[in-house]
Amino acid sequence: MDHLPRSLVAVLATVLMAACTTIADIHPAANSTATPATTSSPASEPSTPSASSGTIEWDEPGPIVAQSAAFQLQPFSSCDALLDYYVEAARDLVGPWGLGGNGPMYFEGDVATEAAAVDSAGGRESTTAQAVGADGDGSFSGTNVQEEGVDEPDVVKTDGEVIVTVAEQGIRVVDVASAEVIGRLALPDQAWNAELLLSGDDLLVVTTGGESFGRGSATDLFPAYAPTRTTVMRVDLSDPTTPTVVGSVRMEGGYRSARMVDGTVRLVMVSEPTGLSFVQPTDGGLSAEQDALEENRRLLAQSDLDDWVPHLQVLDADGTSGEVQRLLDCGDIARPADVSGLSTLSVLTLSIDGDELVPTSGAGLVAAGDTVYASMDRLVVSTSPWGQWIQPFLADRGDLDDRELRTDLHSFDISDPSSTRYVASGSVTGTLLNQFALSETDGVIRVATTTQPDWFGGERRARESESSLVVLAERDGDLVETGRVDGLGVTERIYAVRYLGPDLAAIVTFRETDPLYLVDTSDPTDPVVTGELKIPGFSSYLHPIGDGRLVGIGQDANDSGRTLGLQASLFDVSDLTSPERVDQVTFGGGYSPVEYDHHAFLYWNATGQVVLPAELWDESEAIDAEESGRPFEPFVGAIVLEVDGSTVTEQGRVSLRDGAGGQWWGEVRRSMVIDDHLWVVAHDRLARFTLDGLDDRTVVPLG
């Protein structure tokens, strides 16, 4: 950032200031019934009823005042008002190359149109809980989830009799008894990031993929954004040998996350405006740029609502496409207090066993967001004000006063499976690590934040960082702060959070040492740090295992903060005033996917076993191998630990590698327990081991 030209910094400063302007300042129509003369389109007509029509309930909102305590979402009064908002928000951003990412950064005066067109979101996509299954004889483990009773999508699911997993070629159904693939299902073309939800014989498959697009030869128009599609398939597994698609729905936009409670699924998506196309300069001259700019402004003014809002298309069991309709009605979409981009974030409700695979309710807001949390009763989505990503460049150059990062939170009531009701919004200073930064109980939301993460402004500003635990309560449409604890990990940032019930939070921060804080939240008006433990290294994932014990997975480090490799720690937090690490296992160089993906973690309470997928290497052995010219292969597989009282020991290691393939072949993605066996899952195979001896290996190819 020290190499940024001063002219660019000035431009970015102007963008940020414009992006932080209130809606009333940049969009007069938001507070007026007048319709701009530039907006004349079919959107003026009543909207086409969508599958979610009439199902969203909005609490009566209050007025939006910039930088005030009110952050309530404001529903649009009509389709005209919604269109006006989109057009006015984009008016100063359109340039000779249009919007989105299809052209170079364009500067008009002091506005960087491409820079300002980037959405900013607060953090991305995370009690001991398993989605399904029981712990004991004749039982099986489920997906490792954050909240008990709230299932999360994953790449593998089981009901104890079959294992359903995502393979490179599609979906595979493995019979547990015979350890053989008995069913196959192809995924849609250009699909990636497939995830599964399973309820009885009903399987939901969610995939996101891109679509090819290009310039139209007749019109010379370029789409403003690359189209992204999310496909949700409902699959009947009553006959596991023949998985049958009984219905699908394709939607415009990218899938962010989902949660399932008692067969009701809430799906969160972010959709770019896919109907917009613009011209580009025909040559490198200034006249060509000016001509393209004027034409693109004309195209923007003539856009209609269907160019901006996302759509869906229902597919029959045989793949026949149905009518394209809007994903949400105009009245289902709201705006946040501050401009937060041109994307539409949708919270959709689906029934995994419904007659039709269409949203039964939905709510949307004009914003982008990534962090999704859900309890049994609430779904919370975080968003951030538009342009926030530019701030570190400006602040470090002195062209703009330091501004605090901010994360806005929007709470939805999901207790009724037939509706999605917006409840309240609020704002906290700082950013969220992931979904584990959030927790909700009886309308009280706890959120852990860091003021200056590493990516925000570099080393200098990171040293000014500190973290907080903030308690918010739902009151008349606002998330109102009732209490907070500040000053956690000064100069550090949060690496892990775990809420150990409604009255206790464990927070790990790190820079050179690992403070583990215990925060008593039993009084939401006066949360208090009761204990603190400082040790080298850090934990990136915390997992409670009962009896006041907490397993931490992360990296060992020396006293100066240099990481040394993977470690597993066992903490005793039964004395809230004096937490202690009672045991530790280190593995030298290496890491575990658990450090960034909690679904990769398995704890089996019946035997006290912890399973960690891992990639391990010894640096000295690697150096010796390189110097001697012999090949060096790290360990790639899973480590099995045993936790007994105050001790944690390594039971053994399992691997799917057979000495073939590349160095990283055989990476373990997930593990599960079914009866007396441990199953580990890789991209192209599964393997079964006895749970007690980790032997009798049986490999199941998924090809």
Beta-strand portion reads 35-45%
* Average pLDDT: 81
Distance, first to last CA: 48 Å
Query: What sort of overall outline do the alpha carbons produce when their principal axes are compared?
Result: globular
What integer value in Å does the Rg equal?
26 Å
Major sheet summary line: 6 strands, mixed
What structural category do the secondary elements indicate? Answer: mainly beta
Q: How many DSSP helices? A: 8
| Uncertain regions spanning at least 5 consecutive residues | 1-69, 101-128, 131-137, 389-401, 660-664
Physical arrangement of strands within the biggest beta sheet = 2-19-21-20-15-14
Number of strands: 46
Q: Give the % helix.
A: 10-25%
What is this structure's SSE topology?
Blueprint: H1 6-19, H2 23-26, E1 56-58, E2 74-75, H3 79-91, E3 107-108, E4 111-112, H4 113-116, E5 156-158, E6 162-167, E7 170-175, E8 180-185, E9 192-199, E10 202-210, E11 222-223, E12 228-236, E13 244-252, E14 254-261, E15 264-271, E16 277-278, H5 286-301, E17 311-315, E18 321-326, E19 333-335, E20 344-351, E21 361-365, E22 369-374, E23 378-383, H6 391-397, E24 406-413, E25 420-429, E26 438-441, E27 444-450, H7 458-462, E28 467-475, E29 478-488, E30 493-499, E31 504-510, E32 513-520, E33 528-536, E34 538-546, E35 549-557, E36 563-572, E37 580-586, E38 589-591, E39 602-604, E40 609-617, H8 619-628, E41 635-644, E42 647-654, E43 670-674, E44 677-681, E45 685-690, E46 698-701
Parallel strand pairs: 1-25, 19-21
Antiparallel strand pairs: 2-19, 3-4, 5-6, 6-7, 7-8, 9-10, 10-12, 11-16, 12-13, 13-17, 14-15, 15-20, 17-18, 20-21, 22-23, 23-24, 24-25, 26-27, 27-28, 28-29, 30-31, 31-32, 32-33, 34-35, 35-36, 36-37, 38-40, 39-40, 40-41, 41-42, 43-44, 44-45, 45-46
Helix pairs in contact: 1-6
